[in-house]
Amino acid sequence: YRVNVLSGIHLGIGGYIGNFNLELAYILSLKESESIYWTENDSDNMPNEVTYQFNGITGRFGYGIRLGSRARLTPQVGINHLFLKEKETAQFYANGAYSTNGVLALKFDCALCSHLGITISPEYSMPIKESPGYKKLSSISDTFKKYSSGFGIKLGTYIFF
């Protein structure tokens, strides 16, 4: 589970080859964004209410440092690609808005038994490229800005072989 920067479920796969670590994942948010109100032009049209579903993909690379026989610390660098999808609207406002972010993380793994462990990974995310739609949403609401930059944490369990 991810907290703060794009909170949601993190469905991933990864592993170590020697001490080198590679991870790939899909991020699925558990809730919709706050409501944003758009108008089509500057006339007196009624604004349309739009909410967004946040999702993303991520890739990370790191080098694991063993801490005894049951724990490992892995500094990581990576990229998150976050994208937004409008919910329940037929009109285009910022549908397809995205943000590509660089990530620095420090992953800590600890084996609980022979094939099960827990992991905690504090991270910092910073925007590299944002679409015009995402920039517009970020200027309207700090919520969107928070999803693409700042500190977060990833908590989870893992199975290893």
For the sheet with most strands, the description reads: 10 strands, antiparallel
Described by the principal axes of the CA atoms, the overall outline is elongated
Measured as a percent range, the helix fraction is under 10%
The N- and C-terminal alpha carbons lie at a distance of 22 Å
User: What structural class do the secondary elements suggest?
Assistant: mainly beta
Number of strand segments? 10
Round the Cα radius of gyration to an integer and report it. Answer: 18 Å
Poorly predicted regions are: none
Give average pLDDT, whole number: 83
Total of helices: 2
| Binned strand content | over 45%
Task: Give the topology, please.
Layout: E1 2-3, E2 9-17, E3 20-32, E4 36-38, E5 48-63, E6 65-67, E7 71-87, E8 98-111, E9 116-130, H1 132-140, H2 142-148, E10 150-159
Antiparallel strand pairs: 1-10, 2-3, 3-5, 4-5, 5-7, 6-7, 7-8, 8-9, 9-10
How would you describe this protein?
The longest helix is centred in the C-terminal third of the chain and has 9 residues, at 132-140. A hairpin with a 4-residue loop joins β8 (98-111) and β9. Strands 1, 2, 3, 4, 5, 6, 7, 8, 9 and 10 form a 10-stranded antiparallel β-sheet that branches. With 161 residues, this protein is mainly beta. It is built from 2 helices and 10 strands; from the N terminus they run βββββββββααβ. Helix content is 10%, strand content 63%.
